[in-house]
Automatic annotation (TrEMBL):
<dbReference type="Pfam" id="PF00912">
    <property type="entry name" value="Transgly"/>
</dbReference>
<dbReference type="Pfam" id="PF00905">
    <property type="entry name" value="Transpeptidase"/>
</dbReference>
<feature type="domain" description="Penicillin-binding protein transpeptidase">
    <location>
        <begin position="323"/>
        <end position="558"/>
    </location>
</feature>
<keyword id="KW-0328">Glycosyltransferase</keyword>
<feature type="domain" description="Glycosyl transferase family 51">
    <location>
        <begin position="66"/>
        <end position="226"/>
    </location>
</feature>
<comment type="similarity">
    <text>In the N-terminal section; belongs to the glycosyltransferase 51 family.</text>
</comment>
<dbReference type="InterPro" id="IPR036950">
    <property type="entry name" value="PBP_transglycosylase"/>
</dbReference>
<keyword id="KW-0645">Protease</keyword>
<keyword id="KW-0121">Carboxypeptidase</keyword>
<keyword id="KW-0378">Hydrolase</keyword>
<dbReference type="InterPro" id="IPR050396">
    <property type="entry name" value="Glycosyltr_51/Transpeptidase"/>
</dbReference>
<dbReference type="InterPro" id="IPR001460">
    <property type="entry name" value="PCN-bd_Tpept"/>
</dbReference>
<comment type="pathway">
    <text>Cell wall biogenesis; peptidoglycan biosynthesis.</text>
</comment>
<dbReference type="InterPro" id="IPR023346">
    <property type="entry name" value="Lysozyme-like_dom_sf"/>
</dbReference>
<protein>
    <recommendedName>
        <fullName>peptidoglycan glycosyltransferase</fullName>
        <ecNumber>2.4.99.28</ecNumber>
    </recommendedName>
</protein>
<keyword id="KW-0808">Transferase</keyword>
<dbReference type="InterPro" id="IPR001264">
    <property type="entry name" value="Glyco_trans_51"/>
</dbReference>
Length: 595
């Protein structure tokens, strides 16, 4: 589809007044070729790719890959022409009678089609934000003939079908075919093609996900229009109207399209925010492509295991929400499930929600003690304790006297942890800040031991990753690179060498913590998390079971699980060593299978 030359949008629009009055040769009004028009001035959006390069979602405008004209079904072209512009092959870009009807309807406050497909193409590429009256009276009459002079009729149809909005965030025929029928555009049946064309006058109203019968009736009307124009015989139309149409379940949610699972929406949203935070506004136009760290196999396992647990226990245990995050030792997030149903709630309990971590916070207390010279065999008192007139209670109301640090962590002793926090108050706060768990921890030293401050699941899991990797700083991330619509890289993540990564813990300090956390899974409160291979982790439960956590790591992955209610209502008998540990175990077993 060659072009005779090109002009940019600014140059194009300066021609409007002059072009209407002064005769000029066609060469003076040359446009980009058809392929260039498909990508020019697109609506903003992002395409999300997994770590393996698979397309997993789109936020904002979803454009499928352009479909060459030769691969577009003939009945799709016939349906479009019959429904939208019956004189398309005869006119030179304008249909005076149709234009008169359209202008009159605009002036009288009504809506009536009248633009040719050529005019609609010009509008979609360059004029969609312009005043309808100015566009129809001044701009389209000049630009439509120019487009016809520069492109063939096939080119115009090619550009139009690969650009136009079909509802459901879908722009272009390939996106529409996948969103509504889960197939390639080249495989659309006659009735499916007619239903998609039937969306054009009112994409949201005729959306088959919202009203299948209305959408199908609209498609049948388009089939009849094909008969009227002679592009389809009566017998073929009758067969087409009898075709079985199966609309794929909607994978659209919160301004995005997620063909594999809407649960990927939380990850996609976080990845887009991360990409935006590392770019300037001028780099966010058009459709960008974000290559991420997402592992589809582990993501599916996290979604499956969380949903299975909630399906079985949510009602009886009064659990509304849950969240799971899995990452590598360097912080690359492989899976993220921010809640139970992304269609219902966009709020992300992994990266947005701040909740009290409960006994998970003891990680920082024990790390501070180890940094101050304690060892796993150092004794600490587990005796009853009163602090500021308030009794500090152990979860099981048992008090054993002097026990080792390792034993105290295994049984998640509150009294021992508070004593350690009191003895190492400054060091504990320093560890919390160094591991990026929380910027500030208000209250007394005992509050840092009991986890009464607020933290995010992603940050807590990142802190455990620093222990897993022998003390190196971890900043959880999801973006590997970002490309603009032309494929030019806007952002490429360059990971520093291990020698350049800041140590936030001494390696021997992290090693001792690894040993102690492994004891929690082998002998302590985290036994339900034991996957049958080496694992380490920590349980956490807040007052009245408002939050329940299990966060830990294996030799390969770091993962965190949270259960609770959005409004902080108490759950019924849910503790970190119970259901969260069981979910963690199930996710880790699945993640390591065939890894």
């Amino acid at each position: 589809m060659p072009a005779k030359g090109s002009i940019d949008r600014r140059q194009l629009l300066t021609l409007l007044g002059l072009a209407a009055a002064v005769p000029r040769p066609a060469e003076a009004f040359e446009l980009p070729d058809a392929a260039g028009l498909i990508t020019e001035n697109r609506h903003d959006g992002v395409r999300i790719l997994s770590a393996g390069g698979e397309f997993v979602g789109a936020r904002g405008a979803y454009y499928g890959p352009p479909v060459p004209f030769a691969q577009l079904p003939g009945h799709l072209i016939n349906a479009l022409v019959a429904s939208e512009d019956r004189r398309f092959y005869e006119h030179w870009g304008l249909d005076p009678r149709a234009m008169a009807r359209a202008v009159w309807s605009t002036l009288t406050g009504r809506t009536q089609g009248g633009s040719t497909l050529t005019q609609q193409t010009i509008k979609e590429v360059y004029l969609r934000e312009h005043s309808p009256i100015v566009r129809k009276l001044l701009e389209e009459p000049v630009l439509a003939p120019i487009l016809e002079l520069n492109l063939t009729k096939e080119d115009i149809l090619y550009v139009y079908l690969n650009r136009v909005f079909f509802g459901g965030s879908a722009y272009g025929i390939e996106a529409a075919a996948r969103v509504y029928f889960n197939k390639y555009a080249r495989n659309l049946s006659i009735l499916e093609s007619a239903m998609i064309v039937g969306l054009l006058p009112a994409p949201n109203r005729f959306n088959p996900h919202r009203n299948f019968e209305m959408s199908r009736d609209r498609g049948i009307r388009v089939v009849e229009q094909m008969v009227e124009t002679g592009s389809l015989s009566r017998s073929a139309a009758d067969r087409a109207k009898a075709q079985n149409v199966i609309v794929t379940p909607s994978r659209s949610a919160w301004g995005g399209f997620y063909p594999r699972s809407t649960g990927i929406g939380w990850f996609a949203r976080w990845a887009e925010n991360e990409a935006n935070a590392n770019s300037v506004p001028s780099q966010r136009s058009g459709t960008r492509t974000i290559a991420t760290t997402l592992d589809l196999r582990i993501q599916a396992a996290a979604e499956r295991q969380l949903e299975a647990a909630l399906r079985q226990h949510a009602q009886t245990r009064k659990i509304e929400e849950g969240a799971v995050v899995v990452m590598r030792y360097d912080g690359a997030v492989l899976a993220l499930v921010g809640g139970r149903d992304y269609r219902r709630k966009e709020w992300d309990h992994v990266t947005q929600a701040r909740r009290q971590p409960g006994s998970v916070a003891k990680l920082c207390v024990y790390l501070a003690a180890l940094g101050a010279g304690y060892t796993p065999d150092t004794n600490v008192s587990d005796a009853a304790l009163t602090l500021g007139g308030r009794s500090v209670r152990n979860f099981d109301d048992r008090y054993l006297g002097d026990i080792t640090l390792a034993a105290a962590l295994e049984r998640s002793s509150n009294t021992a942890a508070v004593r350690l926090a009191l003895q190492n108050a400054r060091e504990t706060r320093d560890v919390i800040k160094a591991l990026r768990v929380a910027e500030e921890v208000e209250g007394e030293a005992g509050d840092s031991a009991l986890g009464t401050y607020e933290a995010r699941l992603v940050d807590l899991t990142g802190a455990f990753a620093s222990v897993a990797n022998r003390g190196r700083m971890v900043v959880p991330y999801s973006v590997q690179r970002v490309q603009d619509p032309a494929g030019v890289e806007l952002l490429t993540r360059v990971l520093p060498a291990k020698s350049e990564i800041r140590q936030v813990l001494q390696p021997q300090q992290a090693d001792m913590m690894r040993q102690m956390l492994a004891g929690v899974v082998q002998r302590g409160t985290g036994r339900a998390a034991d996957p049958g291979f080496w694992a380490a982790g920590k349980t956490g439960t807040t007052t009245e079971s408002r939050d329940a956590w299990f966060i830990g790591f294996t030799e390969r992955y770091v993962a965190g699980v949270w259960l609770g209610n959005s409004d902080s209502r108490p759950m019924l008998g849910v503790s970190g060593g119970g259901l969260p540990a069981q979910i963690w175990r199930a996710v880790m077993i699945d993640a390591h299978r065939n890894a």
